[in-house]
Design a protein that fits this description.
The chain is an alpha+beta fold. The protein contains ten helices and 24 strands. 22% of the residues lie in helices and 26% in strands. The structure holds fe (iii) ion (FE) and calcium ion. The site of calcium ion has 5 residues, from loops.
Amino acid sequence: MGSVDVTRRRFLALGGAAGAIGVAATLGHRVAAQVSNMSSPHPSADPFTLGVASGDPWADSVVLWTRLVPNPDELHDTGMDQRPREVEWQIATDPKMTTIERHGTTWALPEHAHSVHATVDGLRPGREYWYRFRIGPWVSPTGRTKTAPPPGQPIPKLDIVAASCQSWNAGYYTAHRHLANETPDAVVFLGDYLYERGIKAEDSARRIDTPIPAHLATETDTLERYRSQYAWYKCDPDLQAAHHAAPWIATWDDHEVQDNYAADVAGREMPHAEFSARRAAAYQAYWEHLPLRAHRPVGAAMTMHRRLAFGSLAEFHVLDTRQHRSDQIAGDAWQPTTPERADPNRTMLGAEQQRWLNDGLAASEATWNVVAQQVIAGRLDVDPSDRDVLNVDTWDGYPAAQQHLYDALATATNPVVLTGDLHAGYALDVRSPVDDSNAAPIAAEFAATSISSGGDGEDLSATGQHLLDANPHLHFANQRRGYLRCRLTPRHMTVDFRTVGYVTGASDAPVATTRSFVVEAGAHRIQDA
Ligand code: FE
Ligand code: CA
């Protein structure tokens, strides 16, 4: 264990009392008193079982994440008591952590499940860093991250991957391992990081060689239960690899709370107060487990929409299409259109977020404006006959809001929409107005398929064929698991649909590019690469 000893010495050499006192002072008397009273007992087992993560890269700053949980398989006794713990972090310019650029300490508080969100600033733009944490004798794995390029400055390229939907039951996170090997500048995660349903060996498409803890069998409902679900998911080595490889820009969809919920309306019958409490627990647990810059939720409210800029090349407008939306019209999924759908007051983003998006898209001077969001924005009609059969959980279920979105996209330079949710890869032109099949495209949309949700899938399902038949602006439909690999340059955005042949039974499927498309700057439409 020589390397650990060296690591400890380095950490000890760099650790300083001044930092700790400074942080304690900012936490107020209660924590400061507890800190001065405690004899600094360290966790008796490795607390870094969930790995590390980084996120929301700015030009001078990034968020570093971890959570102290020695017993991730326990519901109640996770191996930490009710004391706050001080955690050291380091960020270096090399993967061996020999040239430390910044270091400091932060607090892991019991009311936040001993999660850590260290905002490190004073970093240099557009460069790779490596980081790790320490508490007592325990040193975390080392993660790679990267700051954004200098604001407003031209850069030759940006490499990102986009992914969504990782039901643990549905299969292995093979796609995450491949995605990690792409060494992207950032990972954009478009929702369904967690699924709320219980985890049982008999429902799992994975080979189960150790028993699954019994408390995971029920649907997530309490804060403790959501936390235990995150702990289970985050013990997956391939998911950890994806976090260790690059900073994430994450947003949520519905399953982090409950399937097809809409604002404060549950996805299925349940008392309002019960759903409210559940949403608050779910939001809190989400915040605790993701490398977010966002402030932790207040009750059942949390601001998720935000913007991230990569030089003058790209601006990412990250949306939240769940927290503020009107309820879906009855039926939730694919159905023939009804007049109820067209109510002009039905919203997807809520007024404040819609204004924020309008202003941001109109004001952006970036070459590419990437709207990272959850549900399909363009028209997808699944009925090749004259009748429209639409998925009313998507923007097609909210035509007034959909037109507001399109009007905002039309003001932006090179808008591209990245979408999750549907467990299939799609490439489509967004035309405005949506019902006019002769309208010109205003934006390109690419749907990342799922990491695992839906199981192995197939290249072209019956639904996929119906969609291709009914939607001439749809260029591609594929139901395999995988992710999008995107390269943005001043002249082109290239999107590769990266897929794996299977995710059930074994985690060794190779990855391949099924299809590639290109959007030329100024063209607003998709072409074959
Ligand atoms: Fe999903
Ligand atoms: Ca979804």
